């Protein structure tokens, strides 16, 4: 058994080598290759049926991309512990491959083709989506499946002002432009990506850089094909044609189609008129052979396309009567639904989106899991396309690939204007398309921007989007760019592209090109016209909603984020979560704490502003450092014979000694203060040994008239040198009679020695009451924290 593979290698541009290999794995497929970069390996296979299904009238291409969790040494987290349906990210990569491959097949090829691309070995630094289309195209290149050209795709990102091909994951995080571009050796086929307000010329430069890299990859595939010895492509049965019938269809229906096309009628009226022409044609043709019957619909459709395209190119007249660069009428409303946190209705012609915004906590974040990485997203956008939006009846079975793709384009565009990590809300945007006739994804972008501002999400700028079309004629080289295309114009055009952006630049793009030889000059012109249309829409959006609400609506959850030093995280949480649970219970809030580098992010959510303010003050009190000389509003926690313990900051308590409660000498605390009473105190100092806080209430009160301040006792370290014993004078005379030394209030200026002379000393020691000679309970030691 010979399992020796055939392989080619090429440099991706910076010394990294890509290897394409065939002949070892999946040998029963029509074509199979592996593509390797670093430790990332993708297996791509292609199988095509030899014959089309009876009556098949379209090309059935299926493309599936899947990441095996084993490729990264992981077990899936699902209940079944195995890979299930494709995730959204896998669907999006499948769409990238599909959109680039589909134009490669002949128009009359109707055999079913299945392309499967699987990530079998993962590298955390390699982005596999940039290699997936290369693998799929290489599998087709080494097969006999009839494709007309070889293609490839690359990611191009602008990092520090330079265009980098297929950057690694770490580098990509620093990019301000990120595009996936597919192309043949000669022509650009597909563009999709996002940027931080780039200019049209920046996009052209990115496309040109990507195309240069793609040519190298196409050449490598050709080399692999030649090494394998592929001589040609398989023959396939050509569908039945009848040129005589085609001429009859043209003669009967051409003028009728032109009259309907030029009538500038509404979508359904136009559809009904075209349908009526079809019925008249059937009656005119009479009975036809069975093999010719399907051709009538095909020829009529092709004739409609030809007539409308020529009308637009020759007369600059569109189906709805607009000029080539005209945007349909706009209507915008916000705050139209009472219960959602934000809402908007955006209508452009016959396309309408009802979009809502919901604000949630970090617990509502979306887990995005792939083989290599698992990340949480705080911004979610879902797009729904119910069948009634086009006046049809269809089964509702959840979102399909189209919905996932349209929603992703809108999400990537709006994400560029979303606030950063300091914005703690999880934000979900849902767009429900109520009417559709051209570019509902762009309506989602506009409605989403309006709804986000209605919800109070601090978007700095509006984001708008417009769908563009291109029609060209090879016979004379004539072409026309269409702004804000209709659904019918989308189907008959040679290029359709959607551009989103702000007043200052492009933030998202999706482009599919169906014609060969599109020059960069034509693309520049198309992008310039798209900018004009986009700015027209965004100016109307500013007129409707000039800026975001200053704060969320009253029924929306309130949020505030506090950045703290990492060392305080434990203090906020408390032992076993005691403190944070108490804060949440007492204030009715939800608190999330996340360690980020050297800091902690404390996100506080509440439906009531009062609870939010209380929780914020509580947390700030825990992390605050008490300042000597500051006055605090304290709460009495307990009463003792020697004073009251008060909480002057959240989590910070101290003893308000009986001697510091009032200028008046107090014999007892009974009736002076009560538990729960609010008392203003001043922090006069802290004990350097124990860290205990010295609090005083009396210093905030007016001093009694005639009150004589007793000199403070000198600290031992500050006493003057004692000098000679003979200089001390008569000790007995200096001290005076013993009874006088123990004198009462009159001799001490109204004070009491126990209170004024020993008060601070008693607080500092915190152990026993030296004055009372054990006549009162001992004061407990109280920690500063």
Automatic annotation (TrEMBL):
<keyword id="KW-0808">Transferase</keyword>
<dbReference type="InterPro" id="IPR003029">
    <property type="entry name" value="S1_domain"/>
</dbReference>
<feature type="compositionally biased region" description="Basic and acidic residues">
    <location>
        <begin position="706"/>
        <end position="778"/>
    </location>
</feature>
<dbReference type="InterPro" id="IPR012340">
    <property type="entry name" value="NA-bd_OB-fold"/>
</dbReference>
<dbReference type="InterPro" id="IPR001247">
    <property type="entry name" value="ExoRNase_PH_dom1"/>
</dbReference>
<protein>
    <recommendedName>
        <fullName>Polyribonucleotide nucleotidyltransferase</fullName>
        <ecNumber>2.7.7.8</ecNumber>
    </recommendedName>
</protein>
<dbReference type="InterPro" id="IPR015847">
    <property type="entry name" value="ExoRNase_PH_dom2"/>
</dbReference>
<dbReference type="GO" id="GO:0005829">
    <property type="term" value="C:cytosol"/>
</dbReference>
<dbReference type="InterPro" id="IPR027408">
    <property type="entry name" value="PNPase/RNase_PH_dom_sf"/>
</dbReference>
<feature type="binding site">
    <location>
        <position position="496"/>
    </location>
    <ligand>
        <name>Mg(2+)</name>
    </ligand>
</feature>
<dbReference type="InterPro" id="IPR004087">
    <property type="entry name" value="KH_dom"/>
</dbReference>
<comment type="function">
    <text>Involved in mRNA degradation. Catalyzes the phosphorolysis of single-stranded polyribonucleotides processively in the 3'- to 5'-direction.</text>
</comment>
<keyword id="KW-0460">Magnesium</keyword>
<dbReference type="GO" id="GO:0000175">
    <property type="term" value="F:3'-5'-RNA exonuclease activity"/>
</dbReference>
<dbReference type="InterPro" id="IPR015848">
    <property type="entry name" value="PNPase_PH_RNA-bd_bac/org-type"/>
</dbReference>
<feature type="binding site">
    <location>
        <position position="490"/>
    </location>
    <ligand>
        <name>Mg(2+)</name>
    </ligand>
</feature>
<keyword id="KW-0479">Metal-binding</keyword>
<dbReference type="InterPro" id="IPR036612">
    <property type="entry name" value="KH_dom_type_1_sf"/>
</dbReference>
<dbReference type="Pfam" id="PF00575">
    <property type="entry name" value="S1"/>
</dbReference>
<dbReference type="GO" id="GO:0006402">
    <property type="term" value="P:mRNA catabolic process"/>
</dbReference>
<dbReference type="GO" id="GO:0006396">
    <property type="term" value="P:RNA processing"/>
</dbReference>
<feature type="region of interest" description="Disordered">
    <location>
        <begin position="700"/>
        <end position="785"/>
    </location>
</feature>
<keyword id="KW-0694">RNA-binding</keyword>
<dbReference type="GO" id="GO:0000287">
    <property type="term" value="F:magnesium ion binding"/>
</dbReference>
<dbReference type="Pfam" id="PF01138">
    <property type="entry name" value="RNase_PH"/>
</dbReference>
<dbReference type="InterPro" id="IPR012162">
    <property type="entry name" value="PNPase"/>
</dbReference>
<feature type="domain" description="S1 motif">
    <location>
        <begin position="629"/>
        <end position="698"/>
    </location>
</feature>
<dbReference type="Pfam" id="PF00013">
    <property type="entry name" value="KH_1"/>
</dbReference>
<dbReference type="Pfam" id="PF03725">
    <property type="entry name" value="RNase_PH_C"/>
</dbReference>
<comment type="similarity">
    <text>Belongs to the polyribonucleotide nucleotidyltransferase family.</text>
</comment>
<keyword id="KW-0963">Cytoplasm</keyword>
<dbReference type="InterPro" id="IPR004088">
    <property type="entry name" value="KH_dom_type_1"/>
</dbReference>
<dbReference type="InterPro" id="IPR036345">
    <property type="entry name" value="ExoRNase_PH_dom2_sf"/>
</dbReference>
<dbReference type="GO" id="GO:0004654">
    <property type="term" value="F:polyribonucleotide nucleotidyltransferase activity"/>
</dbReference>
<keyword id="KW-0548">Nucleotidyltransferase</keyword>
<dbReference type="InterPro" id="IPR020568">
    <property type="entry name" value="Ribosomal_Su5_D2-typ_SF"/>
</dbReference>
<dbReference type="Pfam" id="PF03726">
    <property type="entry name" value="PNPase"/>
</dbReference>
<dbReference type="GO" id="GO:0003723">
    <property type="term" value="F:RNA binding"/>
</dbReference>
């Amino acid at each position: 058994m010979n399992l020796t593979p055939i392989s080619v290698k090429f440099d991706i541009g910076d010394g990294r080598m890509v290897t394409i290999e065939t002949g070892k794995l999946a040998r029963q497929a029509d074509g199979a290759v592996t593509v390797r970069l670093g430790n990332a390996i993708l297996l791509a296979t292609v199988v095509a049926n030899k014959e089309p299904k009876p009556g098949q009238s379209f090309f059935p291409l299926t493309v599936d991309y899947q990441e095996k969790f084993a490729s990264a040494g992981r077990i899936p987290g699902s209940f079944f512990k195995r890979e299930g349906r494709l995730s959204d990210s896998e669907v999006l990569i499948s769409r990238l491959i599909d959109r680039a491959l589909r134009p490669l097949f002949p128009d009359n090829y109707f055999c079913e083709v299945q392309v499967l691309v699987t990530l079998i070995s993962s590298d955390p630094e390699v982005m596999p989506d940039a290699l997936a289309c290369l693998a799929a195209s290489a599998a087709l290149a080494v097969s006999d499946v009839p494709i007309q050209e070889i293609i490839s795709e690359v990611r191009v990102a602008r990092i520090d002002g330079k265009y980098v091909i297929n950057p690694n994951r770490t580098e990509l995080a620093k990019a301000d432009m990120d595009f996936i571009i597919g192309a043949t050796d000669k022509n650009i086929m597909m563009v999709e990506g996002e940027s931080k307000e780039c200019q049209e010329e920046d996009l052209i430069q990115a496309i040109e850089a990507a195309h240069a890299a793609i040519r190298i990859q196409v050449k490598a595939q050709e080399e692999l094909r030649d090494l394998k010895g592929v001589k040609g492509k398989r023959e396939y049965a050509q569908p039945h044609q009848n040129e005589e019938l085609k001429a009859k269809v043209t003669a009967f229906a051409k003028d009728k189609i032109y009259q309907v096309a030029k009538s500038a009628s509404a979508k359904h009226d136009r559809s009904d008129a075209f349908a009526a022409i079809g019925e008249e044609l059937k009656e005119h043709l009479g009975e036809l052979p069975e093999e010719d019957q399907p051709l009538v619909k095909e020829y009529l459709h092709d004739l409609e396309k030809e007539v409308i395209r020529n009308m637009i190119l020759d007369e600059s007249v569109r189906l709805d009567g607009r000029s080539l660069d005209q945007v349909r009428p706009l209507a915008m409303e916000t705050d139209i639904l009472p219960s959602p946190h934000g809402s908007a209705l955006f209508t452009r012609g016959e396309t309408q989106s009802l979009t809502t915004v919901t604000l949630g906590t970090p617990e509502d974040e979306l887990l995005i899991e792939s083989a290599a990485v698992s990340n949480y997203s705080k911004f979610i956008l879902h797009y729904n396309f119910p069948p009634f939006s086009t006046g049809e009846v269809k089964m509702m079975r959840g979102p399909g690939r189209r919905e996932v793709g349209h929603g992703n384009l809108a999400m990537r565009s709006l994400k560029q204007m979303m606030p950063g990590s300091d914005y703690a809300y999880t934000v979900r945007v849902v767009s429900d398309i109520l009417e559709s006739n051209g570019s509902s994804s762009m309506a989602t972008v506009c409605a989403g921007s309006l709804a986000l501002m209605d919800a109070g999400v601090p978007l700095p700028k509006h984001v708008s989007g417009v769908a563009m079309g291109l029609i060209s004629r090879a016979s004379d080289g004539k072409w026309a760019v269409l702004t804000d295309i209709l659904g019918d114009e989308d189907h008959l055009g040679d290029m359709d592209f959607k551009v989103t952006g702000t007043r200052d630049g492009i933030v998202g793009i999706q482009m599919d090109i169906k014609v060969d030889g599109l020059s960069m000059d034509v693309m520049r012109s198309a992008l310039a016209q798209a900018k004009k249309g986009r700015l027209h829409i965004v100016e109307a959006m500013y007129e409707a909603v000039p800026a975001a609400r200053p704060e969320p609506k009253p029924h929306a959850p309130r949020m505030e984020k506090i950045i703290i030093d990492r060392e305080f995280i434990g203090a906020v949480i408390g032992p076993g979560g005691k403190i944070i649970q108490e804060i949440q219970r007492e204030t009715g809030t939800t608190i999330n704490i996340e360690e980020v580098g050297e800091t902690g992010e404390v996100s506080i959510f509440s439906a009531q502003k009062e609870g939010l303010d209380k929780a914020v003050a509580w947390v700030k009190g825990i992390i605050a450092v008490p300042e000597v000389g500051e006055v605090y509003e304290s709460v009495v926690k307990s009463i003792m014979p020697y004073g009251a313990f008060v909480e002057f900051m959240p989590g910070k308590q101290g003893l308000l000694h009986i001697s510091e409660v009032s200028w008046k000498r107090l014999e007892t605390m009974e009736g002076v203060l009560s538990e729960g009473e609010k008392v203003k105190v001043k922090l006069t100092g802290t004990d350097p040994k124990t860290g205990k806080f010295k609090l005083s209430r009396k210093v905030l009160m007016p001093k009694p008239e005639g009150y004589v301040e007793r000199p403070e006792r000198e600290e031992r370290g500050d006493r003057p040198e004692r000098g000679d014993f003979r200089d001390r004078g008569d000790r007995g005379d200096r001290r005076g009679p013993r009874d006088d030394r123990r004198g009462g209030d009159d001799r001490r200026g109204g004070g009491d020695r126990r209170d004024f002379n020993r008060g601070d000393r008693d607080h500092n020691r915190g152990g026993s009451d030296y004055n009372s000679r054990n006549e009162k309970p001992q004061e407990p030691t109280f920690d500063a924290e």
